[in-house]
Write a structure and sequence with these properties.
The longest helix is centred in the last third of the chain and has 20 residues. The protein is globular. It has 9 helices and 10 strands. It is α/β, with parallel strands linked by helices. Helix 8 packs antiparallel against helix 9. It starts with 7 loop residues before the first strand and ends with a helix. About 40% of the residues are buried. The protein has 2 domains: about 200 residues, Spore Coat Polysaccharide Biosynthesis Protein SpsA, Chain A; about 40 residues.
Length: about 250
């Protein structure tokens, strides 16, 4: 099993996610690829999130719950799960999003067959349980391309820790996923995609609201995390904002 299906560590942050987390966990359990561990770090939820996770963990030993000492944001929660992980492949799924059953099997086979260390896939938007538009990714992205537009959906990203080592998210409240992708792309030339729709991205929950407020964090990412100079930061920020506006208008 381990040779044909290397262990995949699935990284899930959770905070007051009682409305959707059971469905997200079920989408992992329903994977045709069975050699995984689901590492959920709860960021001090005040609702029944921990209770729901515990019920699943009792039934399935592949599901593990960790609890942050204090609320620190999604990046801190994800990093704790990455630290606890033992799988070769590191995958990401938020507590309000879903995977289709063939997601892991398709993506891990794609990576192993092509010797790709970092990949992502297409996904479809989900709003109030209704399917919306699809997002088809470019064939590949690079560090410079990604600076202009984050084409890697967090719920679709997988990296190979055997090749790259463990990579963690920068400790910022927003845009930490993009910061991680950029750091990986400093190490390798490209991240490759599968155009297939393999995940569902919920657009009407707390984790995906307040898009305009993210712009200040985008600037912070360029200047303080990636250490780009003013000229380069401004160039990429303008392109990023314009692309975001055009996407919003659609």
């Amino acid at each position: 099993m381990s040779e044909e299906q290397p262990l995949v560590s699935i990284i899930m942050p959770a905070y007051n996610a009682e409305s959707h987390i059971a469905e997200s966990i079920e989408s992992v359990i329903s994977q045709t690829y069975s050699n995984w561990e689901l590492l959920i770090t709860d960021d001090r939820s005040t609702d029944t999130t921990q209770k729901i996770i515990n019920e699943y963990a009792i039934q399935d030993s592949r599901i593990k719950l960790f609890i942050n000492e204090q609320n620190g944001g999604a990046g801190v929660a994800r990093n704790n799960s990455i630290k606890q992980s033992v799988g070769r492949f590191i995958a990401f799924l938020d507590a309000d999003d879903l995977w289709l059953p063939e997601k892991l099997a398709t993506q891990i086979s794609f990576m192993l067959s092509n010797n790709y260390a970092f990949t992502f896939t297409g996904y479809q938007k989900l709003e109030s349980e209704n399917l919306k538009g699809t997002v088809t990714p470019p064939q590949f992205t690079t560090y410079n391309k990604l600076l202009n537009s984050n084409v890697i959906g967090c719920l679709t990203a997988v990296y190979d820790s055997k090749v790259l080592g463990k990579h963690y998210m920068p400790l910022i409240r927003k845009r930490q996923d993009m910061g991680l992708w950029l750091n990986i792309l400093k190490q390798i030339p490209k991240a490759y995609s599968i155009p297939d729709i393999l995940a569902l991205y919920r657009v009407d929950s707390g984790m995906t609201q307040n898009k305009f407020k993210i712009l200040k964090w985008q600037w912070h990412l360029y200047r303080e995390v990636q250490k780009l100079n003013i000229l380069r930061s401004t160039k990429h920020f303008v392109v990023y904002a314009l692309k975001g506006y055009l996407k919003y208008k659609k």
